[in-house]
Amino acid sequence: MRIAISARSLDYPSGGPKEYLLGLVRALLDLGGNELILYYPHKSHLGTFPEVTETVLPVRNRLAFDWLALPSALRGSRPDVIFFPSSNMPPNIPCPAVTAMLDLGYFHPTLRMYKRADTLYMRRAIRYSARRAERLVAISEHTRADVLRLTEARPERVSVTPLACDPAFRCPASREALDAFRREHDLERDFILYAGNISPRKNLNTLLAAFAVAGDRLPCDLAVTGGYAWSEDFAATVARLGLSGRVKRLGHVAPAAMPLLYQCARALAFPSLFEGFGLPVLEAQASRTPVVCARATSLPEVAGDGALLVDPTDVAAWAEALVRIATDETLREALIRKGLANEAGYTWERTARLTLDALTAAAGIRRR
Prior knowledge:
This protein is an alpha/beta fold. The protein has two domains: 2-164 and 347-367, 3-Layer(aba) Sandwich (Rossmann fold); 167-343, Rossmann fold (3-Layer(aba) Sandwich). The protein has helices at 16-31, 62-77, 116-132, 141-150, 175-184, 204-214, 231-240, 258-264, 279-286, 299-303, 315-327, 329-343, 348-367; strands at residues 2-6, 35-40, 53-56, 81-84, 97-101, 135-138, 158-160, 191-194, 221-225, 247-251, 267-270, 291-294, 308-310. The strands form two sheets. The protein has a seven-stranded parallel sheet with strand order 3-2-1-4-5-6-7, with helices on both faces. Strand 1, helix 1 (16-31) and strand 2 form a beta-alpha-beta unit.
């Protein structure tokens, strides 16, 4: 089967969509038996997957790439099916299509997640994709339920293909490497990690308030990764709560260094109000780092029994959970053990096989 893949999300500096594409394509290549054709928006991506047919469509504007360049290229290459990994597909695609649904945060009525123009465009694009694609693959049961609730997708055409984390997170680093990482990033004191971007849906105000409530009972700093969207709101909250000396802003951390960051952390705190999957939970579990996360959207599904679950908006409950996960060794050992067992059930091989099932079904529909 000749499988085309829109690889425009390689242009993203980091984040879930890019990690999803990279992990899935590697796993599809490991399975073998199919020809992959990847379409890149820039020549800098050439060599990312030297085993496949790499085609550059030199258009950085996403609408021009999706609506003009890609359909034209597909008419020339005539693949059996095309895969769109970022929640939408454009019109005029001349072959069967499978679209991955990452999350439906664009439809959330209150949380500020995306720019207004993006929100309006993606609501229409997701609904169009749900009608037009031969198959949809949702990255969690929660996302599948959202797809069925918010679009006209037919249930029998929407399957679930859970994500997995990079195997690098399962490899323990040496004490020397961990100590060097701590020195480089000024993390000499124990810290609880938040891994993700800073935005309202990530619910960091609750986490900061819980740190303030816990006070001296919590012998840890807070280390925060991610970009600087909504950065002024975050900085103002840190200052107002008197936490300026306890919050470490790490900014963007290179993917190769993320396993070191997790392994250095005392725990992962993930208070997000809305996630399509919640990959940091699995990354922490694979790294033998205890997890406390919100009891919200897809997170309980992904975390299994390998995390301490907390009401996402209960500051007092978060304060108690942070103290427990930092100081209760019995709880920590249990969460590490259960987290490892839970994470082992998520593999990119499984994701690739489930995705291939959807691609094969999609290609067969058009041929019949």
